[in-house]
Write a structure and sequence with these properties.
This protein has 429 residues and is an alpha+beta fold. The protein is 36% helix and 18% strand. The strands form four sheets. Strands 1, 2, 3, 4, 5, 12, 13, 14, 15, 16 and 17 form an eleven-stranded mixed β-sheet that branches. Strands 6-7 form a two-stranded antiparallel sheet. Strands 8-9 form a two-stranded antiparallel ribbon.
């Protein structure tokens, strides 16, 4: 795709990512997005009504949050005339929202867009089984007491067993595999050991702890709970994590022989990330500072059973689109859905056979320096609110480029259902 106008990331903010701990969290999805957006907009020189569009990614909004982007826009005060829409591309929904904003601005449809992603995974509902739904339908259609008694006698304890929507959402219905099982598949394919997975997971926690200590997550704005508790950092961090501790955890997805555990997988989390994306015209009109230049994302499809390899294909398309070698990229974010998945992507990118036979290239793309990948931690330590993670990595990679005085970065995610997405980011001079 030819980009007709440059697109800029002006500013962004996100909430702390809050680990799901059984009961629904203190915040619904819309509340998280509105809170982060309000604090972001307070430091802008333009009014909320200046936005041409509001675009958010969300995988599983609550029943009263249909088209959550529109709810966010109205509650923010963007005005009734500001259109808004929600996108859903599983784990890359937040990236998809930023990509839509990028494309709309590049082609002149808009000049100023609020884009981002949000998810409250702890609020994912429990559902009735089909047998219970049928029973309720029959009960409501009963015309007299005798029919109601007959239907009541047909009620069984099994009718009350809930369907856990979160688990259904983390399972691919086409290949019948949980996302963790797909991670086991590619770990076996690329010979990723349990020790390698746990070592990578410990590194994620160590890097996040260091980033928080150094103040390198400046985009995080505090949340205030109804009980007046202040939450100002990702609460899934385990700074004392160690290989020895992780080694005690049992496999979750392949219990007899697997290596993917809760400790080397992304955390189930609530959170929101929002970005202000602008054209050159909007930047000049409002005298906005520019954090980075964004380019429309590249998307790729892969076998759903090996969905974790999606970033390899999307990264390849990105490099080809921009005629760049892998070595031209200074810093990387590959979302840490699973340690096995990130490590497998690194191996696949540097594997001639995979790149030739699966990606369609003439040779391997090359080796990513681990010291330039996810340098401030990732979803294993921060959490993975699936609708928000794509927006988070774009925003944070932009801050890394600024901090390191580096030029180019790529943010990428694997996507449940067998896809990958990647976006090229350039530091604004």
């Amino acid at each position: 795709m030819t980009q007709t106008r440059p697109v800029y990331l002006v500013d962004g903010a996100r909430t702390p990512f809050l680990k799901a701990r059984g009961r629904p969290g203190s915040f619904h999805a819309a509340d998280l997005a509105i809170h982060a957006s309000k604090l972001l907009l307070l430091r802008q020189p333009f009014a909320e009504t200046a936005f041409d569009e509001v675009i958010f990614g969300c995988v599983s909004p609550a029943a009263d949050e249909a088209n959550i982007a529109r709810i966010i826009a109205l509650r923010l005060g963007c005005g009734e005339k500001t259109p808004a829409f929600t996108v859903q591309r599983n784990c890359a929904s937040g990236l998809n929202a930023v990509d839509e904003a990028c494309r709309h601005i590049a082609h002149g449809y808009s000049d100023l867009i609020l884009a981002g992603g949000v998810e409250a995974m702890s609020h994912t509902p429990l559902l009735f089984r089909e047998s219970m739904v049928n029973w309720l339908a029959d009960w409501n259609s009963a015309k007299n007491l005798q029919q109601k008694i007959r239907h009541l006698l047909a009620l069984r304890p099994s009718h009350f067993a809930p369907v856990i929507a979160l688990l259904r959402g983390l399972r691919d219905p086409v290949v019948g595999m949980d996302m963790g099982q797909t991670a086991e598949e590619i770990a076996y394919r690329f010979q990723i050991s349990r020790e390698q997975m746990d070592t990578y997971a410990v590194q994620s926690h160590q890097r996040l702890a260091q980033a928080i200590k150094q103040g390198w997550h400046s985009e995080v704005v505090p949340l205030y709970t109804p009980s007046e508790e202040v939450l100002d950092s990702d609460d899934g961090l385990r700074a004392d994590s160690s290989i020895e501790k992780l080694a005690t955890l049992r496999p979750v997805f392949d219990k007899p022989a697997g290596n993917v555990t809760a400790g080397n997988s992304a955390q189930i989390t609530d959170g929101a990330a929002c970005l202000i994306v602008a054209s050159e015209m909007a930047v000049e009109r409002y005298q906005l500072p520019v954090l980075a230049r964004l380019f429309p994302a590249q998307w790729a499809g892969v076998n759903p059973a090996q969905m974790g390899l999606g970033p390899v294909h999307a990264i390849a398309k990105t490099l080809v689109e921009h005629q760049l070698p892998l070595s031209a990229i200074d810093y990387w974010e590959i979302n840490e859905a699973f340690a096995a998945q990130v490590l497998a992507c690194l191996k696949a990118l540097n594997d001639d056979t995979y790149c030739k036979e699966e990606v369609g290239l003439k040779q391997a793309l090359g080796e990513i320096n681990p010291q330039h990948l996810n340098i401030d931690g990732g979803a294993i330590s921060q959490g993975h609110p699936v609708g928000a993670s794509g927006a988070r990595i774009v925003l944070h990679l932009s801050t890394i480029l600024h901090r390191q005085q580096a030029q180019k970065g790529i943010a990428s995610l694997c996507i449940g259902g067998g896809q990958g997405g990647a976006m090229l980011i350039e530091r604004a001079s």
